[in-house]
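Repro case for the chain-ordering regression, as requested:
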Amino acid sequence: MLFYRRFTVYAAGFVLFAVAVYGCGGNAVKKSATQTKATDAATIGADAVASGDTSRAIDKFKEAVRLDRTIDDRESELRDLISLSRAYLLEPNPDMATEYVNDAVRIALTLKNDERLSDAYATLSSACYAKGDYDAALLAINSASAIDDRLQKRSGAKLNIKGNVLIAMGRRAEAEQVCLSALSQAGKDGTLAETANAHRTLGFLSAGKSEYATAFDFYSKAYEIDKGFGYSAKVAVDLAGMGEAQFSLGKTAEAAGFFERAYTVNLNAGRAGAAIENLDRLISIYKNAGDEPNVARFTALKQKLAGKEHGNGTNVK
Amino acid sequence: MDERLKDKDSRFKRLEIKIGVLVFIAILGIAAIVALVGIKSDIFTKKFVVSFATDSGAGFIEGMPVKLSGFKIGRVKTIELSDTARVKVTLEINKKYQRWLRRGTVAKVGKEGFIGESAVDVSSGGASGELLKDNDVIIFEKARGIEDLVEQVKPVLQEVRDIIHYVNDPAGDIKQTLANVKAMSAEFRVTKAKVDGVIDETGAAIKKVNAIIETAGSQSKTALESTAKIMKNLEATTMKIEPVMDKVGKIAADAETAVKRLPVAMEKIEKTVDNVKGITEALSGETPKMKDLLGDVRDAAKDGKALVKGLRESWPGSSIAPKLKEPSLVPLDGFLPAPAMEPGKKEK
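-- result from build under test --
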């Protein structure tokens, strides 16, 4: 009898304990539902960025941030705010990017999440650069680099950003060192896109030092990677860089060929301003060569394009 | 005495302590359950109340969820008739959501989808507005449902029907006008026949006069020529009247045909209007049934979803089901376009 009484008491205790655990679990499940929605929104946003649909990405990241806030999921909110800011940079809308990334910086500082703080600072640097505030951009990217050094997690992308900021500030010697580090880091990380970015920047710096053959080499390497990814803006810059290097090496026909390709890429991507710059370069090359028919041809194209640009905005596809 | 019942039996050692521990665990468990149920039902959550007044309490239920951006933030606490015969609806909202609700917050009865579970949807108000406080009054905006739309369509259909009746009315203006046109064209024909007769008679009379004058001499020649000219003019006028009369006759015939066809068309339109009216009335009547049906379907879907979710989250489903993809941060791009990367720019 005693055995049964003890068994009953133990069983009742166990059942009560199980019910209590289940009650705790119920709350967790409820929270998990919103978390799943937020995760889904953030995943869709990231996919939209990858497919080039920036406006959809922005909507989804905003939704994710709102849901994260509902369940006080600060870590996810931080991640989604940085993503939202980067999506705005792609649009490009540096003002909105700055607004959201500043929120991210505050949260990262509160959470003491250094890795994300570095990401937020790097994004802030890009936003400041896009707004022409190079001092702030340098301060932000230096903060990011300092954190990365401390965490021993250096990134080719951040080094490339720093290189570009230094170039914009006229500190090319420093920029070259940083870009070489970026190239090395990107190689270690296996991030091809950043390897291409480093090559392109080094090509630009080499051309600045009148080392045109080296510049052509760097631009060619960048082009080979970029065309694989299909980054049209980068491909156009690579082609124009190659054209510039060829022209400086006295290869006028080859240079014109590269500029014409750059023009076609820009035109097809709807970047009228960049396409007109390519045409300007083509016209000056043909003028130097005394090729009047081609001067007339590209001048007519430029006038037509400029007319369209003034008529209906920049989309000249 | 049985040896086992003696105090020295090892099984009775510290028996009171053992039972005490078990009873304590049980009490602790019950307290935990009560606390958790309370937490889950937001019983211990701090709340604040806001209210609004509406003309009708239809569609409101006590305990109905209050939602902000689709998330439950509270519930309808009370529905009471005020002194002015208006309905005062009091909402109880979790304090933690107070920061989203500012002056200018608008409440309305919303539904999930077109026909779905009702909830009081509140907007967050103006960004610069002051935060709502306890016992504040907010604005209520009446939402329009399918029943309202049907009610709005009904008078329009009635008006269409009235117009058709007006057109079709034998004593109405349109039918009377058409009848007048018909009578007028018939009168024109009679008048033309009379004019023709007069002309013929005049012609014969002139011939007689001509013969008399010829005998009377050449003095009257000028007068005769004038008379002949008048006759020619009269003939030309008659020729001109003839096609006009034909046209009038044709128009009258067409109008007659149209008048004959009109009742058939009217009948068709009336039938269509009756059908539309029938459909809208049926729709109006079926709306609650459709709502129930859709509710059942949605509940079934929800149950299915919950079941899958439960399986996914419980053992052994959790170990079998694929894990949700963790979103990654949008990659940082080290490419910064203009002004630094414009090829051709050289160091100064």
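Ordering looks correct now. Chain A touches chain B through 81 residues (CB under 8 Å).
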